[in-house]
Design brief:
The chain has 401 residues and is α/β, with parallel strands linked by helices. It has 15 helices and 14 strands. Helix 6 packs parallel to helix 11 and helix 7 crosses helix 10.
Length: 401
């Protein structure tokens, strides 16, 4: 069984590829998934030899891009400063026989605040026209060309067995943006309405499918205006708010059709991304950063549809309860069937996993749900002692590479 570990390039640089690879092999890991395109953050690194807190450069790539690959789009990747001295993916390929790990290039796709800020014409815009700079909109031909060029650029230069594509679609409204703040409590209903994109490109693509995006945007504004106007409004529970979503979908078929159209938009982009890669390089898609997995449609992800172009669907099991993780894995397995392999990513530490028994229970539960592989997030974030938990979890599943 596939056993992966997500790793940041700066951890490989500071600790050394050979040292990290040795630890991962000892933990039963078969694939090292290294960030090839990533966003900003503030990360605590409990076993870092130097910087214990790191702020990675926003929206950069950790390989050497070739400008000629991006002729069809004004969006251009920026190489991270680490690449000047450390061409990590070239080194990973050179030492693959020695370290014995398969390589996955972990690509964060349309979540790119650097590009969104520099090119606001290509970002998601809500019903009020407000830009979400962190989220490039997959309706724009230029955004689609950028993502496909990015994957094709990497694949034309570097050797990897997998590309793991994260954020291929519309991001949720709440996404941990810098100092993200609201004195209006969030709920699934209003969060859905705020997440919908009505940018000009969405309007044009929706119109081609017979949908009136502006009319729908007006109805969304009306609903949100009423919601935001009444300070005495009781806060709905998540369950109540989800019932409101269902009721709106039944009452407003245009909203349901718009959500369905969004999934077609994302699936077609993933199909184009798959075509940009060589057949031997397997494409794994992370369909959603939301929890539970059934909310993937907020990002335009339909697991059944994505299983056609993707080789692997990789879901994030970021839950405390083994039962909740297993339920998501079961739900995913039912929707993708045998058309794609199913991987589950677990966090073997805080805030999801209080002890080793919890991690082992999750590993066994998702195995029973029919997964084909397991991954762990993230080498640089966890204590080194957690690798012993990972080793025993992988051993409980058995691996075949």
């Amino acid at each position: 069984m596939y056993a992966g570990m997500f790793v940041y390039p700066w951890d490989l640089v500071e600790e050394g590829l050979d040292a990290v690879a040795e630890r991962l092999r000892a933990a039963g890991i078969t694939t090292i998934a290294v960030a090839a395109s990533y966003h900003a953050g503030k990360f605590l690194r409990p076993h870092a030899p130097r910087s214990r807190v790191v702020f990675p450069d926003d929206g950069t790539v950790y390989f050497r891009p070739r400008p000629d690959r991006y002729r069809d789009t004004p969006l251009r990747p920026a190489a991270n400063r680490l690449v000047d001295e450390h061409d990590l993916f070239a080194v990973l390929a050179d030492r693959r026989r020695a370290h014995g790990l398969e390589v996955a290039a972990w690509m964060v796709g349309l979540h790119n605040t650097r590009l969104g800020t520099a090119h606001p014409a290509y970002v998601v815009r809500n019903a009020y026209g407000d830009p979400y700079y962190y989220s490039l909109c997959p309706s724009h031909p230029e955004v689609r060309a950028y993502l496909c060029a990015l994957l094709g650029d990497f694949a034309s230069t570097y050797e990897a067995q997998y590309v793991i594509l994260e954020t291929p679609g519309f991001l949720p409204y709440a996404h941990g943006f810098h100092h993200e703040f609201s004195l209006v409590p969030p709920d699934p209903w209003s969060s859905l309405l705020l997440a919908l994109c009505f940018c000009p490109a969405c309007g044009r693509r929706a119109a081609a499918s017979g949908l009136d995006a502006e009319r729908l945007a007006a109805s969304v504004r009306e609903a949100l205006d009423a919601f935001h106007a009444d300070p005495s409004l009781p806060q709905p529970s998540d369950g109540q708010a989800l019932h409101w979503v269902v009721a709106d979908l039944l009452r407003n078929p245009e909203l349901a059709a718009y959500l369905r159209w969004r999934t077609d938009c994302v699936t077609s982009l993933v199909r184009e991304a798959r075509a940009a890669l060589p057949a031997a390089m397997r494409l794994s898609v992370i369909p959603s950063v939301d929890q539970p997995l059934a909310l993937a449609w907020l990002e335009g992800s339909d697991l059944s549809d994505l299983a056609e172009p993707a080789d692997i669907i990789e879901i994030l099991g970021y839950r405390a309860s083994p039962g909740e993780v297993a339920a998501d894995a079961w739900w995913a397995r039912q929707r993708i069937g045998a058309r794609a392999r199913l991987h589950v990513t677990l966090r073997p530490a805080y805030p999801d996993t209080p002890d080793e028994a919890n991690l082992l229970a999750k590993a066994r539960a998702v195995q029973e749900a029919g997964i084909d592989g397991i991954s762990f997030y993230n080498y640089g974030h966890i204590r080194l002692g957690h690798l012993a938990w990972v080793r025993r979890a992988v051993r409980a599943l058995g691996t075949s590479g």
